[in-house]
Amino acid sequence: MLADEFGREVTGIRISLTDRCNFDCVYCHNEGMGDTRGPMEPQDDEMSTDAVVRVCEVAAEFGIDSVKFTGGEPLLRQDVEEIVSRVPASMAVSLTTNGTFLPERAEALVEAGLERVNVSQDALDAETFAAVTKTGAYDRVLEGVDAALEAGLDPVKLNMVVFEQTAGYVPEMVEHVAANDGLQLQLIEYMPELTGRPEWAIEIERVHDWLAEQADEIERREMHGRRRYWIGGGMVEIVDPVENASFCANCHRIRVTHDGYLKGCLNRNDDLEPMGELGRDEIRAAFETVAANRVPFYGEYMVRGEDGEWELNDEYVEARVN
Predict the structure, then answer these.
(1) 41 Cβ contact partners less than 8 Å away, ≥ 6 residues apart
(2) What are phi and psi of 174, to 5 degrees?
(3) For helices 138-150 and 126-133, what crossing angle results, to 10°?
(4) Contacts of residue 306, Cβ cutoff 8 Å, sequence gap at least 6
(5) How far is Cα 100 from Cα 300, in angstroms, rounded to an integer?
(6) Nearest to 260 by CA among 85, 10, 17
(7) Would you call 221 exposed, middle or buried from its count of C-beta atoms within 10 A (0-12, 13-18, 19+)?
(8) What is the pLDDT of residue 241?
(9) pLDDT tops 70 at residue 168
(10) β pairing state of 156-162 and 183-189
């Protein structure tokens, strides 16, 4: 098992299969790489089918037991079903998608071995959805959610980024998942340090407080110290990494970019480690290097200054340079 000097074992990987996307969401940070959306055509720098599978196989050698495929929009690739079918049996397989390709592909993905799916859905009306995603695909996303449920991907977790444009729709979305069996809701804190537009951010603790007032039961997960709220039979969870030392202290995940780099932290791009030509020995070496160099973003890479604000840890940066 890979572990860093803070005792955090690496148990999961997120693999970006492409930076292409058929949406243009205003909050996109492309797995922390910035809004670098590529052309819609397949690109030469995307890892091949075999390379993605080798990364998963090496990860499994290290005891990593889960993989989530992301993008961009991963289902713009036509080989996702093959990739899923070739993931080692010891790894749980999930997917994050905007849902537009699920009506035709959900059943085949389940047959290939997909176990869970997250679908991005930031609003319950077409107009707001279009303003956030810059698409008219609202009905298509709803069809995708239904297709995923019909294929057996139960529960389907809806991802909703909470910021100025969407915060007012949180109560409606909570009611939606509570009233519909098979749905759960994941509220994701807006990350202005990755996306810009800090004026769009809202105080996520206000959302926690409101959910706590509505909840029948509150559960705190070990992973990142996340809080889950059970409301009327529905489950709502908040992902709140911004300025959250507990979140970073409990991070057990490594990310893989679409073009073959390992990334130890969502919030950083100065820790990218190439996997060379993606041979097994190169992949193993990269995993070992990235795991050894991981530090909690908040609490080590960023520390509290005398004024109580987070600031770059100069000692860490100097030690890394030297």
Answers:
(1) 20
(2) -60, -45
(3) 100
(4) none
(5) 39
(6) 17
(7) exposed
(8) 86
(9) yes
(10) parallel
Which amino acid belongs to residue 241?
Answer: P
pLDDT band at 261, cuts 50/70/90? very high
User: Cβ distance 209 to 218 under 8 Å?
Assistant: no
Q: What is the SS3 assignment for the chain?
A: CCECCCCCECCEEEEECCCCCCCCCCCCCCCCCCCCCCCCCCCCCCCCHHHHHHHHHHHHHCCCCEEEEECCCHHHCCCHHHHHHHCCCCCEEEEEECCCCHHHHHHHHHHHCCCEEEEECCCCCHHHHHHHHCCCCHHHHHHHHHHHHHCCCCCEEEEEEECCCCHHHHHHHHHHHHHCCCEEEEEEECCHHHHCCHHHCCCHHHHHHHHHHHCCEEEECCHHHCEEEEECCEEEEEECCCCCHHHHHCCCEEEECCCCEEECCCCCCCCCEECCCCCHHHHHHHHHHHHHHCCCCECCCEEECCCCCEEECHHHHHHHHC
Closest CA to 156 of 146, 165, 164: 146
C-alpha to C-alpha distance for 71 and 18, rounded to whole angstroms: 5
Count of Cβ atoms closer than 10 Å to residue 311 Cβ: 11
Q: What is the pLDDT of residues 178-206, one digit of tens each?
A: 999 999 999 999 887 766 678 989 999 99
Angle, nearest 10°, between helix axes 138-150 and 102-112?
Answer: 30
Tokens in use for 286? 């990269």
Measure the CA–CA gap between 131 and 122, rounded to whole angstroms.
Answer: 10
pTM exceeds 0.85 for this model: yes
pLDDT at 298 over 80: yes
Q: Which CATH class is domain 12-295?
A: alpha beta
Token pair, residue 99, equals 């849902």
β-pairing verdict for 227-231 and 234-239 = antiparallel
**Residue 231 pLDDT greater than 90, yes or no:** yes
| Closest to 75 (Cα-Cα) out of 55, 105, 50 | 105
